[in-house]
Each structure stands twice: as C-alpha cells, then as structure tokens.
Amino acid sequence: MTGPAARAFLGVEASATGRRWVGPSPEEDRLAEAMAQTTRLPLALCRTLVRRGVPASDAESFLAPALRDLLPDPLTLKDMAPAAARLLQAVARRERIAIFADYDVDGGSSAALLIVWLRALGRSATLYIPDRIDEGYGPNVPAMQALAEAHDLILCVDCGTLARAHRGGEGRGCGGARSPPRRRDAAARARRGEPQPAGRGRGAGPSLCGLRCVPASRRGPTAACAPRACRGRT
User: Fold this and answer.
1) Element (H, E) at 190
2) Dist. CA 39–CA 186, nearest whole Å
3) Sign, CA torsion 87/89/90/94
4) How many Å apart are CA 207 and CA 202, to the nearest integer?
C-alpha cells in the first residue's frame, strides 16, 4: 500500500528533519523475499537490489562485476576480425610493424596497449606521433611514405584513415576518428561507432577490443603468437 494511508516505514512518521519514512512496496517486498530465497543473500541487501531494479538472476554479477562481462564483444566492431588476423599474421611472420598514433591521451593509450602486447611476444614496433603544429591531425603523406619504406604493416590508432599506404607498407586503421567514403585501401578499419557496441567509447577502445579479439582469430601457425595473459576473452 502506498500514499498517505500507508504505514510509515519502521513506524517513523517524522524523522529528525520532519520527513516521513517510505519503505518498499508490497510488490518489492515479495520480490526481495523471493530473491533472498533464491540467492541466499540477506533480505536487507535483496531489498536494496530490488529497489535498484536488479533481477535475482543478475544479483551475483551485480555485486561482483568482472571486466570481461562488461566489455563488448570485439567482433561487433566492423573489420575487427580481419584486423586481428592481419596483426597476428604480422607477428607470426616477424614483419616490421609501425604504430602511427594521435598525440592525445587516447592515441598514447592505444599505442601503449599495442607496444606492451607486442613486447610480451618478444616483438617491437616503431612508434610515430605526428607533430601537432607542423603535421596536424591524422596520417600525412610524407610520414606514411617514410614509414612504409621501412615497415610491412602500419597501425593507425585514434586517428583518421585518409592517408594511403605508400610503397608497399600496408595500413590498418584502429581508432576513434570517422572517415568519409574514400581512400579505402587499408587492410582493415576497426573504429568505434561502426557499429558502437557498448555506449560511447573512446579512441583507445578499438585497440583494446582488437587485442581481446586476437586470440579468437588464431589460425594455424599463428596460434602460438597469443601471449598467455591475452588468451581467451578476459
């Protein structure tokens, strides 16, 4: 029962501030009691969960959340599967890898994730961050030409994919910037928003999703390339 005729919660008609206490409704009480019987959790805690709209089936994960349950499926990002497969191929073949990262915190985080992952495999990569004043935002032709001359794969993170790969260097875009429908010669372009699986993501999100996706894309001789810490979608 609710409204003025309802009994005050715990009999408190007026608190120290003059407010009347309102407790759970009869329906909420029934749901809380059912949750307590199902989950063996304290009734008071179950009442709180019910008030927050948590069903009994989700009580355990709500109280002890795991990162792997909160992250989106990386394969829902467009081109993520071929991007992960191409990265594994480069690692297995010991190809020369360059990382072209934006100069902001998302670009730095994306580059750091990739470099740490590659180092765990005993691999290295050339990091290139464009000068904000002289080169501006995103890949530029001179920089991409220079990287392509000395590398087999260029990873562009947290920046646009407008610049072409030059003189043999293959490009892979992985970041937050959107590109108009032109210059689509990169090996893959995994970006947030295409589609966006879990709300608003940041530029480092596709890089993290890509590394989570890599073990799921292992094939043949590349199976040994996934470091122990990255195996499985955890």
Assistant:
1) strand 188-191
2) 51
3) positive
4) 10
